[in-house]
Amino acid sequence: MPENVEFIGEGGARLRGRLFLPDSPAPAPVVVLQPGMGDLARMFWPLAPWFTAAGLGVLGYDHRNFGHSEGEPRREVDPWRQSLDLRHALTALERRDDIDGDRLGLWGMSMGAVNCLYTAAFDWRVAAVAAIAPPVSGLALRSSLYTGEARIELLRRLHDDRLARAAGEPPARIPLAARGDSTEIAGFRDDRVLATVTGLAENVPGYRNEITLSSLDNVIAAEVAAHAPRITAPTMLALTESDELSGLHDARAMFDNLPGVKEKHEYPGTHHDALTTHLPAICAQSIEFLTKHLAGEPGERGQRISDWLG
C-alpha cells in the first residue's frame, strides 16, 4: 500500500507526496519522480506499479507552491529551489530503515528532468538518473519561445512584475498553456499542449492552467548543460528530434559532455510527444536503465564519492 509522506524542504516548507515500495523484505532502492512545469505528483502515481514491479520504490511529491505541498506564491515554478528540495527528499529517504540510501535514483520529465540533472551535478548520493526531454539551456528556451518584440514585451512584463511584488502586490499570473496562434505570454503556446492542459484542469483535482509570470524568468535562467562534467552518475536522456523547447542540438551536446556511463534514446516528434505518445516506451527504457544501475555493488558508495570528486 502507498504511504502518504511529508518532509521538510528548503527554507522549512513542508513537501507532501506518496511513497510506493516493492513487496520485498530487504531495504529497497527508490526512484524520486520529478513532475514537469505545472504538473502535480498525483498525475504520475499511476506509473508507480511499473517501477515497483521491477523492484524499485517510488517517491512522488508535489513541488513547493503546488498541490498538497507548502510554499508561496502558489503555482510558482523555481527549478533551483526545486532542486534544493530534491536534495532534502534524498535525505528523508536515506534516514528510513526500509530504504537503501546507497541506491537512490532520479526520474524526471521536462523541467523535472532539469531538476534531476542539477541535483546529480551537486549531490554524489544520486546513483542513477533518467531525464526525459530536459530543456538543458534556458537561453535556448527563451530564444525558441520569444523573439523580436515579443521578447522585449516579456522582459518589460517581468521587470514590472518585480517592481510590483517588491511593493507588496500579488504576483502576475499567466496561462501555463495558450493557443498556438496566441500572442499572449504563456508557458506554452501550442494547441496540443493546451488541449492536454485543459483536460488535466478538468479532471485532476488541484491542477490549474496557470503559473506565475516570474516562473518564466526562473525557467529561462536555468542552464544545466554547463554542469554536465559534474554529472558522474549513470545517466539516460530521452529526446525528441523536433523538440521546440529542449533543443536537440543542446541536449546532444550535453550528453557528449557527460563523463560517466550514459545512454541516449531519440524519438520522432516534438517536446509534447516525449511526454505523451512515447511515454510508455520511454518509461520501459528508463525503468530498465534505473534497475540496472541501482542494483548496487559492495563499495559503490566510496567509488561514487571518488568519481564525483574527480
From TrEMBL:
InterPro entries recorded: AB_hydrolase_fold (IPR029058), FrsA_esterase (IPR050261), Hydrolase_4 (IPR022742)
Ranges where the Serine aminopeptidase S33 domain occurs: 27-275
Keyword line: Hydrolase
Molecular-function annotations in GO: carboxylic ester hydrolase activity
SUPFAM superfamilies reported in the protein's UniProt record: alpha/beta-Hydrolases (SSF53474)
Family designation: Belongs to the AB hydrolase superfamily.
PANTHER family, per the entry: DIENELACTONE HYDROLASE DOMAIN-CONTAINING PROTEIN-RELATED, POLYKETIDE TRANSFERASE AF380
Protein name as it appears in the record: Peptidase
